[in-house]
């Protein structure tokens, strides 16, 4: 997994037409050329060849699929669900509660949200929690406090989820390190 700062990526694509954006219907791509670029980026990171890294990443960004913003916007249900989940990371509503609020079956709610965002509601919650945790850890917050603030049941669950999304423990991330620094 490779985490790229979204603001930096957008700045690198500033020359694109205003009505274009990066797009993939699925949160994963299966493209041999993109995978080869990804492997080159990872190799550069591991070998600490940072001078060529920005150029490789920019090359990969330009190879990603683009879509005109004329594309169908997310449905109102997905926008409302996105907002509802984003505002309640510590104690997100249950799927049963959401289905009742939106007057939809749970399966329909999940399918609609995934079609519009590429993620299930549960995956979105985890990603949003980890994104929030990343910012709090870099700001110097205590790991236990961040685990609580992000709504994880305990610090162990937070630790495991954080590592799966960032490839670094919360402490390593707060110190600006990664698992590959463990020697």
Automatic annotation (TrEMBL):
It comes from the Bacteria. It holds the Pfam family HTH_18. GO terms for molecular function: DNA-binding transcription factor activity; sequence-specific DNA binding. Keywords: DNA-binding, Transcription, Transcription regulation. SMART domains: HTH_ARAC. Residues 79-176 form the HTH araC/xylS-type domain. SUPFAM superfamilies: Homeodomain-like (SSF46689). InterPro entries: AraC_XylS_family_regulators, Homeodomain-like_sf, HTH_AraC, HTH_AraC-typ_CS. Coiled coil: none annotated. This is HTH araC/xylS-type domain-containing protein.
């Amino acid at each position: 997994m490779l985490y790229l700062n979204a603001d930096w990526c957008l700045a690198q694509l500033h020359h694109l037409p205003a009505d274009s954006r990066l797009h993939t219907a699925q949160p994963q791509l299966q493209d041999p050329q993109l995978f080869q670029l990804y492997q080159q980026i990872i190799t550069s990171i591991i070998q600490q060849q940072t001078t060529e890294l920005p150029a490789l990443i920019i090359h990969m960004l330009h190879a990603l699929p683009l879509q005109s913003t004329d594309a169908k916007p997310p449905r109102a249900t997905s926008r409302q669900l996105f907002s509802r989940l984003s505002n309640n990371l510590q104690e997100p509503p249950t799927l049963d509660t959401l289905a009742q609020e939106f007057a939809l079956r749970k399966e329909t709610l999940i399918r609609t949200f995934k079609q519009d965002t590429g993620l299930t509601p549960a995956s979105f919650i985890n990603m949003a929690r980890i994104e929030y945790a990343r910012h709090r850890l870099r700001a110097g917050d205590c790991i236990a406090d961040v685990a609580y603030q992000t709504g994880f049941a305990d610090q162990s669950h937070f630790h495991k989820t954080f590592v799966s999304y960032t490839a670094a423990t919360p402490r390593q991330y707060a110190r600006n390190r990664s698992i590959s620094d463990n020697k």
